[in-house]
Amino acid sequence: MDVFDVPAVPEWLPQHLRDEGIESLYPPQGEAVEAGVTEGESLVASIPTASGKTLIAELAMFSAVARGGKALYIVPLRALASEKKAEFEAFEQYGLSVGVSTGNYDSDGEWLAQKDVIVATSEKVDSLVRNGAPWIDQLDCVVADEVHLVDDRNRGPTLEVTLAKLRGRNPNLQVVALSATIGNADELADWLDAALVDSAWRPIDLRKGVHYGQALHFDDGTQEELRVKSSEKPTAAIVRDTLTDDVDAEGNVVEAGGSTLVFVNSRRNAEAAAKRLANVTSPHLAGDELAALAEVAEEIRGVSDTETSDDLADAVEKGAAFHHAGLASQHRELVEEAFRDRLVKCVCATPTLAAGVNTPSRRVVVRDWRRYSGDAGGMQPLSVLEVHQMMGRAGRPGLDPYGEAVLLANSHDELDELFERYVWAEPEPVRSKLAAEPAMRTHLLATIASGFADSRETLVDFLEQTLYATQTNESGRLEQVMDDMLRYLEVNDFIEETESGRLKATGLGHTVSRLYLDPMSAATIIDGLQQAETPSALGLYHLVCRTPDMYQLYLRSGEREEFTMEAYEREGELLGDAPSEFEESRFDDWLSALKTAMLLEDWANETDEDRITERYGVGPGDIRGKVDTAEWLLGAAESLAGELGLGSAASVREAKKRVEYGVRDELIDLAGVRGVGRKRARRLFEAGIGTRSELRNADKSVVLAALRNRPKTAETVLANAGHQHPEMDDVTPDPDAAPDDVAEPRHDDSDDDQSSLGDF
Ligand code: ADP
Questions:
Q1: Ligand 1 center to residue 149 CA distance, Å?
Q2: What's this model's pTM, rounded to 2 decimal places?
Q3: Among 125, 169, 345, 398, which residue has the fewest nearby CB atoms (within 10 Å)?
Q4: 29 lines ligand 1 (CB under 6 A)
């Protein structure tokens, strides 16, 4: 279908597409248009990666806006929200406005009412519904990206319930659900009363296979020699082979060298693999490529001043890179761009971001097909769906004759296994996870609190709108879980039954729902806070780490003993009774929570990040993750303490501030000044400046010395503290105020740490 023949789109759109090099729609896009996606019809599109799903979403949203409507785009990952927004902002030249809603869960995002297109995660949309955002009712078109994630145990139910609620509030809502190729897309279409486009069409052919021994074995039965030298690993051999030009008998290049995308199972592995593979890519770089890569590396270093940033730049200089959710978004963009420009020859990525990286490459290597799973307590195979999505990244339309995607086998048996398990296999059907208890109790409370349902019957009606109801044939199961959970909510005072038999949320229940807590987290926190008037910071950290909303650290071997000792030593500080050592799994949870709490305590005691990562066996991104979650949960605990009039609210607030800034209590005030992180606060404190107001009135030579003679930093900090004349011209540092750990000032004035925890 020619782009000029698409009905009901805004008049500028066809020419815009043509200018972008899109003359006609891909076949699945054409099918979507025939199904009425530009005319307000709901649609489930289950099509392979890189087959143009984004354009289907854009066609739907922009035609809705052209009719005077408003559209919502639900992203699967927070890290992708701003990237999608930037993508849609390219259309602002046509008068379209775009807003992204991230950040706190307890606001109603009123300003978004003005925007034509809103981008948000399902958690955020769910919380906006709970907080009564008025514009939710004005939506005409909702796009759910990666809708197969309703299958995800942790996040799936929120997406499912959010879609059900949005549809419940507006029966005419157009829902466009984009999915990877799955076995049961028809069930999703049934659920959403939507037309179905279920297509295996790809813009470029894909050969799937397995590397074993000295050859690639493909699904069409062919084999291709690919030698692994005795000194190298298979991945390196494949990257090397892909980089090498294919020549014919006369020595003419038949196919120029290409790039490889390598999927591994953890951030750390991605970084390590990139470092190793950089040695493979670097001999293949031409002089002008080296110069261009050096520039990219410099930009990467400029994004943040951390080891990760340096490591990434070091690899990029040599033509390789890593890519994972722990990188700053600017890092990711720089890597993706350099890969698309064919400067970076090899990217090592984690599966989480497989869906987000729009970076086709000649070959894809799925190096790790097992991943550590906390739920299972060990390594678990990836799903067929995930592996196929990664494989789908192979092949650059217009550049390669076909893409190749391979797994790696170590033995003949494994070769067979991988063919069975992944190459030949159909993706698993997507199944609702709503009947899981944490999901059910959270969403029932939210549904009641937002007035969406006020009786058992209306709740059942609502649950009937979910995918779970469409899929289950076990009658009564959903109602049984529902009844159990309603009882739990009632016992814990989150809901009550009125005299007329209506269900309503209590004041406490409203607070819990608004705070976006799992009701079980709230119950745990309330119980703990009632145990002590002035709990210690560790006690509070342990309390929030015990809730189901905190993803705890695992105990490594030998740590059970270590943390059992700690548990006895710090027993007096921990809130509530410890389970007996004989109840093994509950006791281990208690210890895991203690380990996590001690990490937070170390952070709040100003221990260096490096020491923390070493002591707890975590990466800097993990510290950031724990700190963020703890901050949120402690904020929620403070609200709950306030709601219940508990005396512990002040201690909670202090513990929260300490973890937020990573400082002891005497630095809380100073560290709250923008540009002053934990280290600078400590240096200022040691130079005799103890508070924000002392900083405002401080002697400039003392401030300059305490901030390691960096005039620009000192000026910024003073200005942020509200100093009348922050200029540092002609100020000489006071030698008595110089910190003991003073180093030679660096040329770029960039200083260590500050913004807080490195680059995330
Ligand atoms: P998906 O979201 O399905 O993984 P994308 O929407 O990112 O895939 O599309 C992959 C690439 O294909 C993008 O670079 C996009 O610009 C391009 N593309 C999409 N539709 C067309 C088309 N009809 N003709 C040519 N290129 C297209």
A1: 21
A2: 0.78
A3: 398
A4: yes
